[in-house]
Amino acid sequence: MNYFIRFILCFILADLHRFYCDQSCHASRNAQSRKNHLLNENDDNQNHIELKQQCNVEQHHTPIDYSQMVRLPGGSFIMGTDQPVIRADGEAPERSIQIDPFWMDIHEVSVQHFQEFVHRTNHITEAELFGTSFVFESMLSEAVSANITQAVAAAQWWLPVPNAWWKRPEGIDSNVSDRMDHPVVHVSWNDANSYCRSIGKRLPTEAEWEYGCRGNRTGRLFPWGNKEMPKGRHHMNIWHGTFPTNNTVDDGFFGTAPVDTFPSNQFGLKNMVGNVWEWTADWWSARPRLDQVHNPTGPNTGTDKVKKGGSFLCHKTYCYRYRCAARSFNTPDTSSSNVGFRCAADDTNEYVVP
Ligand SMILES: *[C@@H]1O[C@H](CO)[C@@H](O)[C@H](O)[C@H]1NC(C)=O
Ligand SMILES: *[C@@H]1O[C@H](CO)[C@@H](O)[C@H](O)[C@H]1NC(C)=O
Ligand SMILES: *[C@@H]1O[C@H](CO)[C@@H](O)[C@H](O)[C@H]1NC(C)=O
Ligand SMILES: *[C@@H]1O[C@H](CO)[C@@H](O)[C@H](O)[C@H]1NC(C)=O
């Protein structure tokens, strides 16, 4: 179907709008990517851009469901740390940042909610388009593992697994039927962005995310304080035991945990650290911009997006990144079994408190 017709449909038909706009907006962000040929080789980029803008305007009017969100009051907070654990990641320096009030999802987006989005919009994830996604080796069945010859040079325990996607997180012989309340994984930044926009939300900026993580406490490592296990109680899903060979599953989970597991922080947010990495809106730079002090949005452009919070695979000896100040990155089209997201929303006077 040509883009002019899609464009008109986007204007006129509310339901169809969601479908076409979502697919097109999704495609437009990947014009340079290797999956381009799978979509439409003759796409007119200008049409794409216009369509994308139109989509964003339309989506802005979607009434937001605030029922699984909390309103964060904003104000100033200290972002970053002067005691960086992983200095190369740009955790330092500490800086005072001003944040306007905004809303944030209490939970990471679950498989259930992502499935509803897919049913509503027919969204196709990048993992599906690429045909592979990254899975931690020890989560695979022997059958799937034996089929894969190519390892990731930088980290041998990550394998590009054919047919791994959100519904089949460990490849063809896996499913999510007992994980509907777990965070969705194998979603790229582009997928996450499409999801949030389709319901009138957006990804949080890195600063908003870190403000939410810190939960009104200054200079702490974790959302609840400095102790990994206050009163001997688990507060997050990370790797216990010897990485990468022996996960003792002390916290109760080998892979992901349901998004509602563990206590919430002072803001009411759950699983800000551990469980899955969470995409943020910002482009990555290893040197944080110090000129932005009010609602910072990070670098103007880049090749990678910032992810925050660490995952169920993080271990102190290997990836001590389940701290609020920690940060990492991936290209916006990357997906893997330990990266998910949650959405944020602007504060407006139009909301109805549930
Ligand atoms: C292994 O690879 C073969 C050939 O590509 C494929 O037909 C089969 O489904 C794969 N099996 C698993 C468990 O991935
Ligand atoms: C889904 O996976 C679970 C756990 O691996 C398995 O017990 C179940 O049979 C699978 N269900 C289907 C429909 O394949
Ligand atoms: C944040 O902490 C301050 C000082 O302890 C307290 O007065 C304020 O109510 C807290 N705000 C929230 C939103 O928890
Ligand atoms: C894993 O570590 C635990 C705790 O140190 C130990 O008891 C257990 O034997 C180890 N398992 C393996 C397979 O090495």
UniProtKB/TrEMBL annotation:
Single GO MF annotation: formylglycine-generating oxidase activity
A matching Pfam family: FGE-sulfatase
Any GO CC annotation of this UniProt entry: endoplasmic reticulum
InterPro entries the record matches: CTDL_fold, Sulfatase_Mod_Factor_Kinase, SUMF_dom, SUMF_sf
Entry annotated with the keyword Signal: yes
Keyword check for Signal: yes
Key words of the record: Signal
Entry's transmembrane regions: none
Annotated signal peptide: 1-21
Superkingdom of this protein's organism: Eukaryota
Entry similarity comment: Belongs to the sulfatase-modifying factor family.
PANTHER family linked to this entry: FORMYLGLYCINE-GENERATING ENZYME, SULFATASE MODIFYING FACTOR 1, 2
Protein name: Sulfatase-modifying factor enzyme-like domain-containing protein
